[in-house]
Amino acid sequence: MKNIFNKRAFFRTVLFLVILVALLQIVSQIMVRLSDEEGKHNVRMRNYIYTDLIGQEKDTIDVIVTGDSEAVADWTPLRAWEQQGFTSFPAAMPAFWMTEMLPMVRLSFRTQKPKVLLFETNMLFSYTDPIKGTVKIAQSEIRNRLMIFRFHNIWKHVISPLPEQDSLWKSFRVRTEVVPPKNLNKYMKPSSEKRKICPMNLLIFDQLVKLCRKNGVQLVLYSTAAPKNYGMRKHNTLTELAERYGLTYIDLNTQVDQVGINWQTDSLDMGDHMNLSGAQKVTAYLADRLKEAVPDLPDHRADEKYSDWSEQAEAYDAAIADDLKEIRGE
C-alpha cells in the first residue's frame, strides 16, 4: 500500500513539473511577443538584443557578430550588406562577458544557420571566476530557454515606459561624437611579450570552437582598431590562439592604414570605440576580408526575398549622409 502512495506522489510531482514547465514556456512566448509589440522602449537595454535576435526571420542571417562594446560600436550590418551583399546580426552587448556570449551564440544557432561567427576578441581578456562563471552560464541558458526570466519585469515599463531610445539600423546604433586619442606613441609598439587569458575564458573559448565546428560555422577572430584596448601583447597572444585552433585572425590594429582609419575623425571616445565614421570603414574592410576568407558567403543583393535589406540600406545612407560629412569635415 505504501508503494502505491509513493508511486502516486512521484507521478503527481512529475505531472506538476511538466505542467509548470509548459506554463513557463507559454508565458515566455507571451513575454517575447509583448517585448516585440511594445518595441525596444519597454525592454531593458541589456535585453533588447535578445528581442532583436529572436525576431530575425529563421535561417536568414549569414554572419553572426559577437563581442562586447567594441563589436557593438564598429559593426553596422547595412554597410556590410552594401559592401558584399551578405546579411549579418550583431549578437553583442556593452560589457559583454564570455559567460553571456556562449549562451547567446547557442541561442542564435537555434534559429539561424550562419556560415560565419565573427568574434571580436576584447572580452577574452576580462577575468572570469570559474565558479561564478559556471553559474552565470547556467543562468543565461535557463533565461534563453524560458524567456519569462529574461523579460519578467517588462510589465513595469508598460505601466511606466522607459525614455525614448535612439533608432537602430539592423541593431546598429548611430554614434556621431568625435573624441580623438590623446597619445598614440605607445600604440602597437613592438614587443614579444604576451597578455594572459584567464583559464575560464580559455575553457569557454574552447567550447565555442567546438560549438561552431559542430554546427558547420566558420569561426573568424578579429580585434577592432582601439588604442585604448589593444597593443602588441594582446596581438601576440591572439595570434598564437588562432594558430592553435587553425582560425583566421584579423587584427585591425596592425592594419589601420589599410582600413583607412583617421584617428582625428573616427574615434568616439579617445580610442576606445569607433564612431559612425569609423564603423563604416571597419565594417567595409571586414566585409571584404570575410569574403576572402569564406568565398561561399552569399550575395543576396539581387534576391527579392532580401529586398528589405536593400530598402533599409538606402534609407540608412540617406539618414547618415549629413552626419558623415560633418564628422569628416567634408
Task: Set out the fold topology.
Layout lengths: L1 H37 L9 H8 L7 E5 L1 H6 L2 H8 L3 E5 L5 H14 L4 E5 L9 H16 L8 H6 L8 E2 L2 E2 L25 H16 L3 E6 L8 H14 L2 E4 L4 H4 L16 H18 L13 H22 L2
Parallel strand pairs: 1-2, 1-3, 3-6, 6-7
Antiparallel strand pairs: 4-5
Helix pairs in contact: 4-11, 4-12, 5-6, 5-8
Give your account of this protein's structure:
The structure is a single chain. With 330 residues, this protein is an alpha/beta fold. It has 12 helices and 7 strands. 38% of the residues are buried.
User: Could you give the distance between the termini?
Assistant: 88 Å
Which CATH architecture? 3-Layer(aba) Sandwich
pLDDT averaged residue by residue: 85
Poorly predicted ranges: 20-44, 148-165
CATH superfamily: SGNH hydrolase
Shape: globular
User: Could you give the count of β-strands?
Assistant: 7
Q: How many helices?
A: 12
Helix content: 40-55%
Strand content bin: 5-15%
N-to-C order of helices and strands: HHEHHEHEHHEEHEHEHHH
How would you classify the helix and strand content by structural class? alpha/beta
Quick take:
This protein has 330 residues and is an alpha/beta fold.
Describe this protein with a few key phrases.
alpha/beta, two-stranded antiparallel sheet, 330 residues, globular, Rossmann fold, five-stranded parallel beta sheet, 51% helix
